[in-house]
Structures are given as C-alpha cells and as structure tokens.
Amino acid sequence: MTQRQHHLYDVIVVGSGASGGWACKRLAEAGLKVALLEAGKPQSDENFTEHKPPFELKYRNKAPEILRKTRPIQSKFACDEYNADWFANDLEEPYTTPSDKPFDWMGRLRITGGRTNVWGRLCLRFSDWDFKAASRDGCGEDWPLSYKDLQPYYDLVERYVGISGSEETIEHLPDSFFQPPIPLTCQETLFRERVREKLGRVVTHARAANLTQPLNGRGPCHYCGPCERGCMTHSYFNSAFTTVADALASGNCMLISNAMVYKVLVDSAHNRANGVLYIDRVTRQPQELLSRLVILCAQAQESVRILLNSATREFPNGLANSSGVLGHYLTAHVRSAGGSGEFPSMGTKPSVEGGGPRKPTGVYIARFRNIPNSPPYKKFLRGYGYEGESSTNFDWKAPGFGIAYKKAVRVPRTTISITGFGEVLPRWENFVELDPGVKDIYGIPVLKIHMADGENERAMIQDMGDSAGEMLEAAGAKNICSYAHPSAPRWALHEAGIARMGSDPKNSVLNQFQQTHDIKNLFVMDAAGFPSNPCQNPTLTIMALCVRSCDFLMSEFKRNVF
Ligand SMILES: Cc1cc2nc3c(=O)[nH]c(=O)nc-3n(C[C@H](O)[C@H](O)[C@H](O)COP(=O)(O)OP(=O)(O)OC[C@H]3O[C@@H](n4cnc5c(N)ncnc54)[C@H](O)[C@@H]3O)c2cc1C
Ligand code: SF4
Hints:
The chain is an alpha/beta fold. It contains eleven helices and 19 strands.
C-alpha cells in the first residue's frame, strides 16, 4: 500500500549526480528545505579502492564473464570488479531497443554521486559557436541563451569544482578558470608541438576536474591513476563528496537513498506538481513525498522516463508534453574512430600496474572542422575533438623465448592513442518512448531507445579516423593504426536533448531556465534540456546551467510565484 509522508518540502530533487548535487547545494545553502531522492545507495570514502591491488580482489579483476552475468551492458565501460556494485543491474533494470538499432546505455549508476563517481572528468566550455550553430548552418534550433548568460556560472562552477588545464584563447573553446595543468609526458609534448607546426591544430592539456592545488579541504591529485574507483583525497570532482556533502552540511537537505522515483504527482485542478511517487528499493514499497517544487536531475533518459511515466488525462503523452517533442531529438556523441601510434620512449620506464605514478589525464585536441574564420567543411556539419593519452608498457608481444625474450620484453613501448568525440545532430527519428510490454523489478515501465547514425555522423566518423592517422603521422609516430568503425551498437555516455529547451512552447519542453513550459513548478536540470550536443563533453555545461536555473528558481520563489 502506498504510504504518504505528510512533511511538505520546499523542493524535491531527483538524482544526486552532477546536476542534482548542484541543485541541492545551491538551494539548500540559500535556505530552502530540500529532499534529495536518490535511487542508489549512499556513497562513502570506505568504498574507495584506488590503492587496492587486484590480488586482493576475489577474482583479481580478471573475470569479466562474472560481471557480465548481472551487468552485460554496464561492464562494457568503466565498470569492473572494483566498482561493479555502484552500477545498475542490467537484468533488474532493463531497457529495450528495436532489433536493428542496438544501443548500449552504459554508465547507469545507482549510488550517491551518480556518474560523477566514474566519469572521465574532462571539462570543456561551450561557446556561442555552439549555442547559435543552428542559425549558422540551418540544422536544429539555437539555444534560448547565449554564452554571456552562462559565463558567470561557468566561472562559479569551475572555481568550486577545480579544473586543471592551460589557456589557449580559442574562440570556439573558451578557456576556463584553471588550476595549473597536469604536465604532459615527453611524447605528448612532442605530439602537441608537431601537430601545431605541421597542421596548425591545437593539442592542449586535458581540461580535467582533477585538482593540482588544494581546494576547500580537498587534496591535490597524487597520480595513482584509477579515479573510477573513488578517491580518498577527494582530488577529482565527485558530487558525493562535494556538492551533496555541502548540501547536507547546510542542515537544509535530507538525502533519501534507495528511492527509485516512478512518477511526478500532479494536482491537475491547479496544474501543479505536488511531489513524487517513489519505490523504496529495499522494501519495494511505494511511497509518496510532497513538495512545492520538483526538479528532475536523474540523467537525461531517466528524467524523461519519469515524465513519460507521469502522464495524466491532461498530458496523455507524457507530463509537460503539450509540444509533443518530449523524448525526441536524442543525441549522444559518436566516438568510434581514432588512432594510435608509437613514439620514442625518451627514457620513460615501463612499470606493471601500480608500479609508478599514473597521471589520470592526457591531451585534448580542439575541434578544427567548421570553426570560426574558416570556410564550412564540405563533408559534414559541426565538428569533433579528440581525447588522447600516452602510456609506456613492456613489449609483451616481443618474439622469442628464454633470455632473449626477457631482454626484448623490457624494451619500452610508448604509445599515444586518440579517440574522437563527434557532435550528433538532433533528429526527430532518434527518440525514447515507454515500452508498454516491459517493467523493471520495481514495476516501473522501462524505456525503449531508438538511436542510429545518420549521413552526417557517418561522414564525420570517417573523417575522425582519417585525421587521427594524419596527425599521428605528422607527429612522426611509427606503427600507426587508425580506425573508423560504424557506431553499432550505438553507445555514448553523453546523452542529451530529449526535453529540449526553447523559446517557443510549441516545439520545446523547457524554457531557458529548464522550467517546463506547461507546469511552472516542475524543472528538468540535467542534459535533457540541451537543444544540441556540441562535441565538447557536456557535464561542465550541465552544472553551469543547473546553477543558473536554480538562481532563477530562487528569485521566483522569493516572489511567491510557486
Ligand atoms: C565512464 C564515464 C565517463 C564520462 N566522462 C565524462 C567526461 O570526461 N566529461 C564529461 O563532461 N562527462 C563525462 N561523462 C558524463 C557525465 O558523467 C554525465 O554527463 C553527468 O554525470 C550527468 O549528470 P546528471 O546529473 O545528468 O546524471 P548522473 O550524474 O548520472 O546522476 C543521476 C543520478 O540520478 C539517479 N537516478 C536515476 N534515475 C532515478 C530515479 N528514477 N529516481 C531517483 N534517482 C534516480 C541515479 O542513480 C544517479 O545517481 C562520463 C560518464 C561516464 C559514465
Ligand atoms: S589519480 Fe588523482 S584524482 Fe584520481 S584517484 Fe588518484 S589521487 Fe584521486
């Protein structure tokens, strides 16, 4: 039987990841009474295993087939024996796809902090080149805000998150407020210099949420390497030990863990959201919680799933969906092309795992197609950047045996590998809907995801592979291997755009403050609101937008609008 908790919160925030953490911090510190509902369990420093050697694990981190039994999708990326129980169980919480459009929905975290527990931490600003791209090339819709609207919030978020990197003064990739960069390896420096000299492209330090200086009680990174297992010195940004911790410390935020939100409760007579219905994941009992405002921050697909599951007589196709665009224009970066090549080791010595310092970041190659002050590129719209890293290993594949093999295997092999991240155009045909025939173990209808590459993505992927080879060659790499695979199964960790923002309520779900056009006390503050998904990684912009929207919400709250 459904239990109703009669306490009335000012705000319910659903999800404690990048966006939810900031929403709670900003609003709780401003004095609102916040309930944070998180589907996952609590996170704690005791769970962090970044210094634990594999031989202390039951399966030595060498038995992926065991993980695949419960997490066949999640175990494809960033999920291993160290952290598997932070991720959703794919069998208990499935989703579906059409048979000809497989999609790997990875990074479904079920723990405080969400994806920020395991993310790659690359933080890149968007610019007006992105926000106003549709006006320039005619594809999709402009964002209903400009860079100048977001710039103060980028500054605010960066000062708190702590982003290491270096200034490059690139118009379409604005500099952040940086801590000193994590130094490049000799090979990365060589690569950077030669690519600039020969091709005029910018290879910069990865701009990453890894501290190089102390910040708010968090220590600088000591280069142990595997941030996706947690960090006892809190040197990378994880909302579990930053924004959420601050919100709880304010005394105004209550974290309710294991709370799987099913739907938003609606007072149809007054066209208001008045709380949420959630399933307690431990007891499996439904619970209702009431509030004056509801903010969904559950990650783009999860938030839209909640809205679709909240349909009412007035909104039969999903709550706040008078426009009909809810669920459509799903975008997620293509990243199935890149390359690698070998460089002189320059005195770098190989070491077995954990045997030496392992810096957690590498390089970023700024977009060079369709950029300001150059003619439009003929093969495709928009652009891509690359993430890259170098490593020095033993020559495990050396031929021979005996003493000769022992000698040969010690010869260091230094490799740089780069992976492209390309913008996917927002298209109506890429969408999510509820699958009427499938529910998760909590009885909640699941999503069916329809996603496939179009012509533009295919042309971009090919170019990403070709350009990777070109740059490695320009840098003098040997044994170059470049690739450009079709992205099937389609996958990405940067999904966006299925409840898009816009000025016109007829073709958008949210306004520029991520408030639904249809229901004034309902907000969606994750990447679901992105009208497009530029090639830069999204999370810095998710956080900056969220804080801006919270400030708007606060000002409306003070005017008693809600
Ligand atoms: C391996 C990996 C690498 C990445 N690397 C980068 C990178 O380098 N740079 C970058 O910008 N981005 C990166 N990302 C993406 C980044 O992590 C996300 O963009 C960001 O965390 C999204 O924030 P969010 O608040 O929307 O969702 P999340 O951070 O995922 O948080 C959502 C939270 O909501 C909870 N939740 C979901 N459904 C419900 C429900 N029904 N009820 C209650 N709670 C719910 C989840 O349990 C989760 O804790 C990476 C992601 C992954 C997985
Ligand atoms: S590499 Fe740095 S940020 Fe990552 S876990 Fe180690 S100390 Fe923490």
